[in-house]
Design brief:
α5 runs parallel beside α6 and α7 runs parallel beside α10. 43% of the residues lie in helices and 15% in strands. The longest helix has 21 residues. The protein has one domain: NAD(P)-binding Rossmann-like Domain (Rossmann fold), CATH 3.40.50.720. The chain is globular. It is of the alpha/beta class and 367 residues long. A 7-stranded parallel beta sheet has the order 3-2-1-4-5-6-10, with helices on both faces. The protein has a 3-stranded mixed beta sheet with strand order 7-9-11, sandwiched between helices. Belongs to the NAD(P)-dependent epimerase/dehydratase family.
Length: 367
Amino acid sequence: MATVGIDFPHLFNGAFNNRRVLITGHTGFKGSWLTLWLTLMNADVIGYALPPRTEGDNFAACRLGKDITDIRGDVRDYGHLKAVFEEYRPEVVFHLAAQPLVRLSYALPAETLDTNIMGTVNVLENVRTCESVRAAVMITSDKCYENKEQLWGYRECDSMGGYDPYSASKGCAELVCAAYARSFFSKDNIDKHICTARAGNVIGGGDWSPDRILPDCVRALQSGRPIGVRNPKAVRPWQFVLEPLYGYLTLAAGLLENPAKHIGAWNFGPDYHSVVPVGEVVNEVVRLWGSGGWEDLLENDTAPHEASLLSLDCSKARNLLGWQSRLTLNEALAQTLAWYRAETDEEKRMLCEAQIAAYCLRCMEPA
């Protein structure tokens, strides 16, 4: 059994054992991994999301729908979302539903803004009005910051901004969450609290989204084509999917037990060794795969703007939560590619469970 040696229900001080947990965006990349982790911890998971993008996505491949209450819905549909809150009465909420792609936001700006801002408002309204909810972790993005392409990482107190519609939508979502926190969840007699979480470029198995470098690499390598790289010199913070999820789970458990310490905004990113150019990541992917190559697509001045440099300062999470990045970039890439090399859905599910178990053991080791 892949998870032997881990007492999952008692992880995070048993915060999720038999707890009703609602995840918006559970069919997405990070949402699917969070769903699996919570089911291993014996949580009663209710998922609310659009269908997975493809049948190869992690949610579908791991057949997670059979393990949870799996609901199809759009976070822009306030009435439907409200009915779900009223029927299932969740105690903990993780909000991940979003239009998550920068380049797609140029093609669909209004839909991106509506989904990422008003979708967040709809979740917050239901958190506010549903008596059962005690804690909500609202996931945004490292791109919420006003990116000046500075050499040092952004801290939680830095200004929100956004050059493109996606980044602007995440900055706005942060402002909305802060307004709700101050207006409705800060009073001593309110037994519910929220926080926001911002992560860097997250990689892992089961992501087939367009215009993301790891899925692009795998598609090209599997078909024998050179990997097309748009911005090989762009520097990004790369981290394995379980790293920020551990942070999200830590926050949710903390909001239930010691909310004053866990409210506010939090960064979860890798250490500086994993903040590297795209071209360096692609070279390592090719080396680990054992074959292939890549080519610079040499985009012209008419291509959509994408930041050349972005990193996070995660000292707040390290110092106050004891959270830290534990996997090297090489380990993250190796674990990611292992998923794409797995041949059957059963193998992918077992691999996901094994990677979660191994990561939990890693977190139990002394820092």
